[in-house]
Amino acid sequence: MNPEMASPSSSSDRRITVLARHLAGVEMDSKNDSISAFPTSGSDNNSVFSHVVRGPEDPILGVTVAYNKDPSPVKLNLGVGAYRTEEGKPLVLNVVRKAELLLVNDRSRVKEYLPITGLAEFNKLSAKLMFGANCPAIQENRVTTVQCLSGTGSLRVGAEFLAKHYLQRTIYIPQPTWGNHPKIFTLAGLSVKTYRYYDPATRGLNFQGLVEDLSSASSGAIVLLHACAHNPTGVDPTFQQWEQIRKLMRSKGLMPFFDSAYQGFASGNLDADAQPVRMFVADGGELLLAQSYAKNMGLYGERIGALSIVCKTADVAARVESQLKLVIRPMYSNPPIHGASIVAAILKNRDLYNEWTIELKAMADRIISMRQKLFEALRARGTPGDWSHIVKQIGMFTFTGTKL
Amino acid sequence: MAGFGKAMACREHVRIRLGTRFMSSSSSSWWQSVEPAPKDPILGVTEAFLADPSPDKVNVGVGAYRDDNGKPVVLQSVREAERRIAGNLNMEYLPMGGSMKMVEETLKLAYGEQSEFIKDKRIAAVQSLSGTGACRLFADFQKRFRPDSQIYIPDPTWANHHNIWRDAQVPQRTYHYYHPESKGLDFSALMDDIKNAPNGSFFLLHACAHNPTGVDPSEEQWREISHQFKVKGHFAFFDMAYQGFASGDPDRDAKSIRIFLQDGHHIGISQSYAKNMGLYGQRVGCLSVLCEDEKQAVTVKSQLQQLARPMYSNPPVHGALVVSTILGDPELKKLWLKEVKVMADRIIGMRTMLRENLEKLGSPLSWKHITDQIGMFCYSGMTPEQVDRLTKEFHIYMTRNGRISMAGINTSNVGYLANAINEVTKSS
């Protein structure tokens, strides 16, 4: 198979020496001082990773681990943010099943590598979904969109880009926020600060605190915004409040980084849930957006999402895209094809799209009706306290206000 | 690496320029100073190929398998697995460590069906985003838990290896590998580098079918390398992207790993199903680290998960399902193994044909290395200028290091390719 390279000593001498070493085995080795175990030795008893301590369970995913272990017949999992049907079962949307069968029956489909930036068709359709079909920024080619691994991956790639190319490395995240946010940004090389968001007293938005904190943020800092259905509180700003936030941020040159994990899932209407983001695009300014299809298309495990960066000019957008590729390539080379194909198949086909909006609304409506039912059930039992926040909050989560 | 250097300079430039002018004016972009990044040398080749209108064009650039008609292949075993999966199962999140079923089957391939390490649960393993993702996770893990270490990377290697460890902020050095004069292995220089590296160094090794050269150590050479690693206490990280694809026999292709395991090394392995199952775009792979005992394996795995969570939370489910469906069904697995051998055999056949064609054309050079080398790639020995001529005059696309992807060769284009290579090299 491979020729032995000629070396100064005869190759047969060398072979005999090697054989002899192996035949002599461990006894011979142990006599040789130079092979006693180093602290960093990768062989025998000592691992180079002996000092590694066990990492903590993820606070969110660990809940499901614990739930699965629990033998009780009355157990309830209200932990992880994955939709469940009335019967408590996970749901694959009909429209997704249809799309998958279309794909699997299409024998012309192959499994080649996607480009680093992902499936082009998916990228275009994703941008349109959030920014609107007639968005001037899209028509002017000022938006670069790259397929990423769901919301997490989009946030991470965007954050790494910012750490490399943006003049400010501080990101402000709302308090509280999804547990994984600070880790993502820290590992990407950003430094994380918080801004006030949730008001425990009202179980609503601490708007004054938010305004104060963003006003005192260093100019040019990055600000993470939940596009809708804030996770974990379910508390969203009103449109008027969003407008004030927008004005404030633009006046201080704060860079908006939207995390949109629930478009369509919050109110049941895709366009309504996109309003805050569209407000910011409409003023001509720049922003980053992380989109996820985990919840609104039920594609959780397929890891499908997109990062969009809205830039001032088409030329800038092209250069930005080329730099995004340099972030992605050493991370995972190119994104997985399956989820992107499903999303593209649905978004580009009018019938499938309409079917999707109907199924999406049904999921959102079930959540909204559960809020209502829970609220009424608590009231019916005469549970002390004001539980109206359950119906005022929006999206998959409710911050109950209960203590541990 | 030029891109990174430029990016660094760019950031400093931006800081200086915008130091006091931090209010974004209505007309200027925050990204004004972002430089265009250089095209990826490998993937950029395919882009250029696709843009070429010539009917004679040949793509021997990227390492994706093609059949004898030059078409991408979806394996029958994969189609059948997908048929069983489609529309049926839910798409819930996998655990952070991925599909355990897929991981178990994958470990068997690398460590052996009856591996004691698997039985003793000594392997920390997680599903990864193909080979790239596995290497990156390991690099991040190495950075976090052995922050003073560096990585020795063979010269040459897959270009993205450098990017991966650089972005993980692990300092890197190279070790001698390829011997240009003989177009084979520079074994004595390689052994010298192993000996001269500080004790306990981390080394990246290609388990089989070295990319880009196709030059692998012989079994005896692997044994010597393993022994020297023991002497020096080095850590071996294997990148195995071509198991089964190199010789047609997965166990044979894993020989280097098995030698190291026998010798008692605690190794790390990156495995990919991109080529050997044709699952390229699905991004399916596995990172494993052999530990002292079960307790440590649990520990290390928990830390690998901590690194995956802020990168992508959990890995994609579809490709993993395909793999576990195939490997979990004896009939499908048999079919898969047959299909892998077909692919490997076709490549080996093309090597023979290319060499014969060149020799028939009366080329003054030796082309023995084409059949000596193994796997998807052949390091032709051509210069960048010769490669440029191939592209400009003959519409043949490959990376400028002279690497030929054998999968892009078929019975229809091998004559054309041989002729073109002969034309640009005959006067050298």
Structure explained in plain terms:
- The complex is a heterodimer of chains A (404) and B (428).
- Helices cover 46% and strands 11% of the residues of chain A.
- Chain A is an alpha/beta fold.
- Chain A folds into two domains: 1-51, no CATH class; 99-351, Aspartate Aminotransferase, domain 2 (3-Layer(aba) Sandwich), CATH 3.40.640.10.
- Chain A has a seven-stranded mixed sheet with strand order 1-9-8-7-6-2-3, sandwiched between helices. A two-stranded antiparallel ribbon of chain A has the order 4-5.
- In chain A, helix 3 (94-105) packs across helix 12 (337-348) and helix 9 (239-251) runs parallel beside helix 10 (270-282).
- Chain B is an alpha/beta fold and 428 residues long.
- Chain B contains 17 helices and 13 strands.
- In chain B, the strands form four sheets. Chain B has a seven-stranded mixed sheet with strand order 2-10-9-8-7-3-4. Chain B has a two-stranded parallel ribbon with strand order 1-12.
- In chain B, a hairpin with a 4-residue loop joins strand 5 and strand 6 (184-185).
- In chain B, helix 4 crosses helix 13 (317-327) and helix 6 (130-145) crosses helix 12.
- Chain B: It catalyses: L-aspartate + 2-oxoglutarate = oxaloacetate + L-glutamate.
What are the main properties of this structure?
heterodimer, A: 404 residues, alpha/beta, Aspartate Aminotransferase, domain 2, 2 domains, 7-stranded mixed β-sheet, two-stranded antiparallel sheet, 14 helices, 9 strands, disordered N terminus, B: 428 residues, two-stranded parallel ribbon, 13 strands
